Amino acid sequence: MSRPVQCVLALLATIPLAALAEPPPAVPFSGQVKEKGTRLPVAGAEVLLDGGEVHATADAEGRFALPAVAVGKHKIHVRASGYVPADTDETFKPGTRLEATYWVERKQRYVTVVRAQKLVKQTLEQTLDVEEIKKIPGTQGDALKAVQTLPGVARTPFGAGQLIVWGSAPGDTRAYVDGVFIPVLYHFGGLRSTVGSDLIDSLSFTPGAYGPEYGRGMGGIVEVEARRPKSQGFHGDIDLNLIDGSFLLEGPISKNVDFAVSVRRSWIDAFLPLLSTNDFQLSPKYYDYQAEVHVRASPRDDIDFLLFGSRDEVSLLLKNPDPLLQAQFGSTTYFHRLLARWTHRFAGGATLTVTPSVGLDQPMSAAGTVGGNLGFTGDVLTLYGNLRAVAHVPVAPQLRIDAGLDFEASRNAVSIDAPLITGPPAPNTQGPPNIGQYVNDLGVLYFVETAPWIAANFSLFQNRLTVTPGLRFDVYSFVGYQGTPDSYSHTYLNWEPRLQMRYQINKVVALKAAIGAYHQPPPPQMLLARFGAPSLGPSIAFHYVLGVELHPTSTLSVEASGFYKELGDVPSTGISPNQPLFVNDGEGRVYGGELLVRQQMWKHFFGWVSYTLSRAERRDHPGEDWHLFDFDQTHILSLIASYELPWGFQVGVRFRYVTGNPTTPVNSWYWSANDNAYRPINGALNSGRLPAFHQLDLRIDKTWTFKLWKLTLYLDIQNLYNAKNPEAIQYAPRPVDCAVADACQDAISGLPFLPALGIRGDF
After folding, report:
1. What is the CATH number of the domain that holds 66?
2. What is the mean pLDDT of residues 50-67?
3. Please, which residues bridge with residue 89 across strands?
4. pTM higher than 0.90, yes or no?
5. From 67, 219, 278, 496, which residue has the greatest number of CB atoms within 10 Å?
6. Contact 278/748 with Cβ under 8 angstroms?
7. Please, which residues have CB within 8 angstroms of residue 71's CB and are 6 or more apart in sequence?
8. Same domain for 506 and 564?
9. How many Å apart are CA 301 and CA 608, to the nearest integer?
10. Model pLDDT for residues 70-128, shown as the tens digit of each residue
């Protein structure tokens, strides 16, 4: 035997026999990690064996794989950020492949993913967590209603659902869905928004001093970004409560096409009259819908189609022993929108978004009678078209250019049959205006509004200073009554420079400032030949903002701002016989400050404190005295707190305190032989105030989470302690029977204690 062979045999003799035995058999192990209740895949989840180093990471579809696991019993540990840890035992048998599905439960916190950076960062923009704010008491789970509790937003009577921002009129604040203007943000009474919360991805509100990408309004901006449908399986929800019911279904149509459909219908008209203590019967009905299709056309292109709309019907019957005070009223309003959005991502980081849209609106269709014989009808039907194009181009590390086109056009068919108002009321009276003969005004009005805009975003001093100058050029064209003697055509050119600045002093403190010019066209009904003034032009506003922003922690923020707003060319009623019914004589000024302390979800708690101190004044004609705006509210305070309890419970409260709206007091009455009735003699315009509004709301949620679905019971109570909040003053029809003037008035209270019990299922 040769010596090399002897050496090999000697070496083999030193190896233990166990080492030469066959390795234990191994089998492949794969599976998927899903979220309990929603069945969505959990990307990035880790699957560990026996707590050791052997592990696999789930991909975007939640799938994981280990090619070889020794047979026998092993401990499986599933870990994912934001989810409750899950542990189980698995037995691996020889020759058998094991495939498993693991269900993990999301921790009780809510996250909204913003898919893309805003093209132009607003100085005062508030972006809200949609899933978080759906649990705010008093909102009935409606995310858009949370805007009403943010700084700068005044409260409207009876929760009318209008947005009065920084002392502007209700119609001055504009709302957009995916960049497309919608005329109505809330259904009747502000009970619901016209866009369902389940398909909202992000919600932003800016009270003023916003950038050049938006215009045609002197108030604030509400931006709603629709959420794209889910692509991993079919999902949906059903929500039933005392106010309305809703349904959502979404999922994939094919590999690159997903869809979502949502419908909501009210039935509050069945029980709302039971809650009213006033002498009227109120019957509101509404519905809204959204249908969306998302197409992944290529790795760089996405196409979205969105069809959505809303309809409201309201009837009101006022009963009174005095036939002169009886009235009935009916109204129908609706809007429908169809948009297509194409988004392209260029190789260098630039993006282009083009969104054409069409719509059909009925902003007014009303009919009614007063006193049994004084009737009126009014209808407006609008065909709407829009094109919005936005380019986002990074030029250098310190410079980004945003530019676009904002085009809107409308055809407004208007028909009004009503008595003509020939002049203002008699001096110092609250009686009706002077009324002439019945007149029918039938006309077609065209609005064409084109606005190219550009903004440059400079980041200086290592990104500590951000300066964003912008310019918007708005062209308004108004054409009416073509082919008739009342024909007119007017064009207005408006330059709107805007500037925003932000300086980050350190990681905690930042200063911010903004200034801008804003124009607003008059509504179509004000340009009517007989009930309006075709010569009426756009109004103008200047916004000024200075503020500070603090971020003591990653979840706690404090923002304080001072603002001043100057209004000019505001429509007001003509006062001389040779003036039209409306003239651009009005002026306004608004000044004040606002504070927002906001705690995002932290240790199962979220909430905010919102406070606004302001004064809004108007002057209808040059040389007149300033008076308070109808919706001036000195103090506006909102406190919101919500806490997640164990076992799927969550409880929240909301408290609001608001200074009462101005009112014009009645000092005494006189007998009018012409009208054969008593007429009040007023004090100074808006020299009085209604009592302050205060209300406490409560919400309790209980959620059961199963593997394939979730069930939630909730109780949302408005006005928990049944505060009698006066919304208006009603005066007696025959004041001669009153001993003193105060005995002839009675306060009309708002909604009483209102519990809303609901049930919701998500699958």
Report:
1. 2.60.40.1120
2. 84
3. 75
4. no
5. 219
6. yes
7. 24, 25, 26, 27, 92, 93, 94
8. yes
9. 39
10. 888 888 889 988 888 888 888 888 888 888 889 888 875 433 332 223 333 455 555 55
